[in-house]
TrEMBL record, chains A, B, C, D:
Species for this entry: Paenibacillus solisilvae
InterPro entries recorded: Class_I_gatase-like, ThuA-like, Trehalose_catabolism_ThuA_prok
Residue span(s) of domain ThuA-like: 44-234
Gene3D superfamilies, per the entry: 3.40.50.880
Domain of life: Bacteria
Protein name per Swiss-Prot or TrEMBL: ThuA domain-containing protein
Length: 258, 258, 258, 258
């Protein structure tokens, strides 16, 4: 059984992590195979799978008003998880900008699988985020290359396997991750930087490769554990107030000799 | 005298580096102080200053058709140098996308000073690129923190001084540089990551802080030498063809046992 | 008042973080000024200052048997904090190797100030770790350049000030930090990468600049809060067992066609 | 045919790159298979293979006086290439320190294959440099993950294949590379960070995985081209003089108000 440990204790206040899981929720309705694997949607599977971790979870989908990501919802969100696939272009630019601003101000963002092509991920990365893909349902072997990283916590081995997964292969057009945590191996000869962590503004972003809609990836306990680790890693760090305000000099500018 | 060394020789073909210097060229006409320091525009000062390095240089400005950055010009450009200040919003989105695509395909980009707020830099960085600033004309002391980096070549000391510069201060909302080369010190108490190198797509981007329009920064031989180093670093590396095409498996996918 | 927040709750077991503070404890006895500022030693000041954070703290000093770092002590240590100055060479190689192995296996290490020249830090960095220094007692202004980083948590501003500090200046011969969190400004014109985080083996290392022995740095609440943040960041991540054992192939090596 | 391009021209002086290839040169004499593939030693194959690139090449081996790396030889060396396997412990510490000092002062170092366990590489990395290995002679597929990097220049594809290679697998206990250029795929399910670049002191270090002694890896034109690229990348950058000398303040320390 995977256990979660608390290391801090004194002078604390208990605040659960507020997680919003955003799922496009289209392909589960249009693709029978996806509908069979995720009858209530990928967001529900993720929500169920993350329950043991004690997060306060809500979900949102594309076809809700404002895609379910109203200002109130985002104000209450510590970490946003994103899964999208067929309808990236239907996400309105104003909502994308709203999410972007929240990340800049500290909200965490976890982008899963085909979310690599989402407007919000591409905006934050500044690159095309293209990659190779092949829907062959072979296994992916995900190796840990940063074993000291909190996102790798509790895996219990040097790798874990996703039994059926869609191949994603390099060259993955992303910025070099601030922290590269996983590399994936695929039977067809490809490799992929499957777990990539970034600091952006006052926020944190984690991209995680597994999650094709016709495979039961989001029931895999290792995949869920990594996502939970990433949620805890991505929680906003209250470093300070909006840092862009003051340009008055903080040291004396005495003498004009220069 | 700063010297340039050739280290390669055999089996070579001589190809000068094609540099396009893009300058907004507005403030030199509207601000008398800037006009006094750069009577023919910042682009001309840069072009003159970079002559000894043997690049093939052309210039382009905002008010030219297509901002001087036609498809033909960009096709012939190895490295684009960018200085903008007051009119970032007037750069058309289609030209920004054209530059963005060229960088993705390998073109180098050097962004100077107030260009941190340019559309192209903000698009490539994916962050707000905000910072502190103060036009006090005090000196900036630029320290080398990566002395083995080619962009730091030939400086001859641990730091160089820009006698009069506009203060830029942290927090500079950029991604952590792939390579941090310079940190700047300002009399008013601020520090700044003044030389930041990035790999984006198949291209390379270098941000360099100095260059306020009312100070003679672009006549400073150290500043010019760094820009020349950055040009040579940013030259397209012909690694391969467009890598996004083929998803056919390269290794046998024999047996369907997984 | 600085507060500590717990974000996790369910399925947890409470485990305080075991911190061992190692201090050379020589200069406090030989230098009257240092003795006046730290009458019971730097380790006692740090221990007192970190009490509110709820760590389980023990101390160790150079002149104890095995420098106080027996195998039993290190086995119980989650994070080791290190302050040394005059007697780096007196730390026995076998103890250095013992610490090195523990870090490799996951123990966290926080190296303070003049500890940059400690055998253990130099061994882990693989560089000379030289720097500039000047004992002028001017202030250091420490800027946050990674506001989303947990080590920057709770600072409440873009910078904090250490009123009197020994100047440390670049070029600091360290590997580029995996994560650069702070840059320091000094009145005499220098800058310094004052907060540097590294992943090494299965462990984590944080170097933090402030802490000259004749200044009351370790009573500064910001300095203490950063050290506490670093302790929490550096806690061992139980990613897996010793990963170096098995080289048996994990995928079928069928067919010998290659 | 792979071509080398010169991009610089004016104000240049022609200086060939001085390369010293160090090879242990033991296994070629004790293992008949290795002796068959490299009858004159790995160093000779590398020297022959690198001829077209116009470097000034000399070789050195373990059993020469001072391992062939006298002070004079190293003074004339811009980039040192290192291949070792069975006798890492026989390399004398004084020679290791001599190499270490030269790297700190700017010399480039390229470490190949089993050189990951060399004293010099382990000293520079500060980690154990352990990894998985299996001598199965299957192919390695090396993918480019930083296509804009000069070390990836001219490969002409997204990957290249080494037909027969010894598997090296993660977790490779190295610091996260400053620049990760290649990831390798192995048939048995492993992945490996096969091309890793580091800045250390004023020097540059590149680790490159291919090169088991019983396979003709060093006749592979892609492998040779990468090594040549790495040589050019690792050439000393004459940034400045020895930076550790002067601690006199460079800015006025007027007023003692702090």
């Amino acid at each position: 059984m995977l256990k979660v440990q608390i290391r801090d204790h004194a002078m604390f206040e208990w605040k659960p992590i507020n997680v919003t899981i955003w799922n496009e929720f289209r392909v589960e309705k249009t693709n029978p195979e996806a509908g069979r694997v995720y009858p209530k949607g990928i967001h529900t599977a993720l929500s169920d799978g993350l329950q043991p971790y004690g997060f306060r979870i809500q979900t949102a989908t594309l076809d809700q008003p404002e895609h379910g990501l109203t200002a109130e919802v985002l104000d209450r969100t510590d970490v946003l998880i994103w899964w999208g696939h067929l309808a990236h272009e239907e996400v309105s630019d104003s909502i994308v900008n709203r999410i972007y601003e929240k990340v800049r101000q500290g909200m965490g963002l976890i982008v899963l699988h085909s979310g690599h092509y989402s407007k919000i991920f591409r905006k934050l990365m500044g690159t095309s985020c293209t990659l190779k893909w092949r829907e062959d349902g072979k296994r992916e072997r995900i190796w840990v290359v940063s074993p000291g990283h909190p996102i790798a916590e509790g895996i219990g081995s040097e790798y874990f396997v996703v039994q059926k997964e869609e191949m994603y292969g390099e060259f993955f057009d992303i910025p070099a991750p601030d922290e590269l945590i996983f590399i994936g191996w695929f039977k067809g000869g490809e490799v992929f930087r499957s777990g990539c962590a970034y600091y952006r503004g006052m926020g944190k972003v984690f991209y995680f490769q597994p999650g094709h809609e016709t495979f039961p990836t989001y029931y895999n306990k290792y995949v869920l554990h990594v996502i939970a680790n990433a949620v805890k890693w991505a929680v906003p760090t209250t470093s300070g107030t909006e840092p862009y305000a003051d340009n008055r000099h903080v040291e004396p500018l005495e003498n004009t000799d220069c």
